[in-house]
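Long-time lurker. I teach an intro course on protein structure, and each term I like to show students one example going from raw sequence to a predicted 3D structure in token notation. This year I'd like something fresh instead of my usual example. Would anyone be willing to generate the tokens for the chain below so I can use it in lecture? Attribution to the forum is fine with me.
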Amino acid sequence: MLSAALLILAAVSAHAKDFGPISASGYVKDILELDHSQLDGRPWTLNTTRERLTLDGGWRGFKGHVDYDHEDLAGNFFRTRDYAAFGLGEPATWLDMEQTISTTATSIDRHRLYRGYLGYESESATLRFGRQRVAWGTGKFWNPTDVLNPYQPTTVERDERRGVDAAYGKYALGELSQAELAWAPQDRWTGHALLGRVKSNWRGYDASIMGGKIGTSTSAWMAGGDFAGNLFDGTAHGEWSYVDTKTRTPTWQADVGYDYTFPAENKIWILRDASLVAEYFHSGAGQLDRTKYDVAGLLGGARVTLAQDYFGASYSKDVHPLVKLELSAIQNADDGSDFFSPSLQYNVVTNLYLTAGWQRFGGAKSTELGRAPNMTFFMGQYYF
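-- Reply from a regular --
Happy to contribute to a lecture. Here you go:
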């Protein structure tokens, strides 16, 4: 599947004048992670080098988008019990858009399509098929309605959001209203997801309702909604979902938060032009008894949280025109564990960014966040 997609990409690029304008961009990124195994405590390193080429093209309403990645991953992480048990913690995909070029005991060389879809767009409608991001929900840390693209808020690459192999359609119902439909197929009906969503605006607030079948069992379903709008010079947002997997008791999830950017005229320097986000998240699918935590599901990428109640907050500020400070914190309100991550980004020259950060996981070893070792990371990224 990947080889065929690359041949099509090469053919389109070679005949760009026949298909209309094609824009190209991309980046080169290198990430060094210094951590310890969660299973036996042994230290490990992992260096990830990624080259990404992004191509966008179109012809008379037909659109194509490709994010092609080439990755080299190297380090003694591949000798850990964590990797032997859970691999890279990447959920399985339906379309085969990844190929391993070579492997050793301490490295993997691979290429893949991070995104790749074809479709048609007009003023009132959009149709797409392929690997894409179906961005539903308004939460910044957690997304109860986003069952197609689960997101782990403690990840190092917070700007990377896993896509889904799906057919997606959107139709405008007016200037501020739209209807959406997403179908994420699998080899068996049990794993299929078929969801619809209607979004509109009421008194300055965007709001939506959604629901449909989810990929847990033959008749599993969910319903939910979200909202976002201005409140006291900031933005209030929230979302909720009711999920019935047919394999356990139905559960509720909800998230509510607030975003605020302080004005440049603020007398306190640390708040001047600073952006704050605060959220509370409740998951009825979580456990209050920490001995029942599904740790394997969390490490394997199948779960995002294990407990029921969480608080999250973030702070970001340009401390200099070339330097950006970010702080992120999460509190598990049920078992008392916490997460704190400061990072500093420096724009060295045009299009080159260097980032250094630290992730601190606090709490007892039996807690959700406390069981993870602290980690240091360094990142360099050049855009072209």
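Some talking points for your students: Helices lie at 2-14, 16-19, 81-86, 295-299. The CA atoms of residues 220 and 245 lie 4 Å apart.
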